[in-house]
Amino acid sequence: MGVADELERLASLHREGTLTDEEFARAKQAVISGGSPSGTAAAGAGVIAGTHLEALRHQNELERLDREWDRERERYMVRGKYGTRYVPSRGMAIGMGVVSGVFGIFWMLLATDITRNGLRSTTGGGGMGGAFLVFPLFGALFILAALFMAVDTYRKAVAYGDAEADYRRRRALLLARQGR
After folding, report:
1. Are 34 and 49 in contact (CB under 8 A)?
2. b/e per residue, 116-155, with b = 16+ CB within 10 A?
């Protein structure tokens, strides 16, 4: 392959986005400084430039895959109490559901007891009877909200695990193709 053909191939890779501007400039300089287009010097330079270009292409693919994973990983992150972001886990989702559910049950039992005592103390079934019935419902709403959040976090944890396994598999294939 001649120097002109090699330069055209580099330009094509640069247009496709396989090579960054810096990689393109380095590879182009390597091809140009490789010698005259005639004889074995040009052939040797073409082989070296082709090998170097292939290594750059593999490195670029690996970096692209890593950047894509960083962006995709952000989709699965969960925002914590103080705005910190972290990767959800299955255990965290189950623990959150159990603790929140126990709190909701405790609230309902306590509110029901207060409601019963409050209804007994009102004389003649006064206007407060209906208001006391609302408090146990807050516990039920809390349990439903906690269950929804726990299921959603668990779903995200499973999806994150699957996506991470896929990323690691694709990365291992790229590294195997590079011979690392």
Report:
1. yes
2. eebeeeeeeeeeeeeebeebbeebeebbeebeeebeebbe
Model confidence pTM above 0.70: no
Average pLDDT, the chain: 80
Contact in structure between 53 and 27 (CB atoms under 8 Å): yes
In this structure, what token pair is assigned to residue 106?
Answer: 């405790």
Strands (E), 80-153: 85-86
Sole residue written with tokens 């390597």: 30
Q: What would the pLDDT profile of 37-76 be if each residue is shown by its tens digit?
A: 444 444 444 555 667 777 788 888 888 999 999 999 988 8
Which contacts (CB < 8 Å, 24+ apart) does range 41-50 have? 42/2, 42/3, 45/3, 46/1, 46/2, 46/3, 46/6, 49/6, 50/1, 50/6
Q: What is the distance of C-alpha 102 from the center of its chain?
A: 31
Strand partners, 78: 86
CB-CB neighbours of 111 under 10 Å: 20
Report the candidate in 133, 142, 134 with the shortest Cα–Cα distance to residue 103: 142
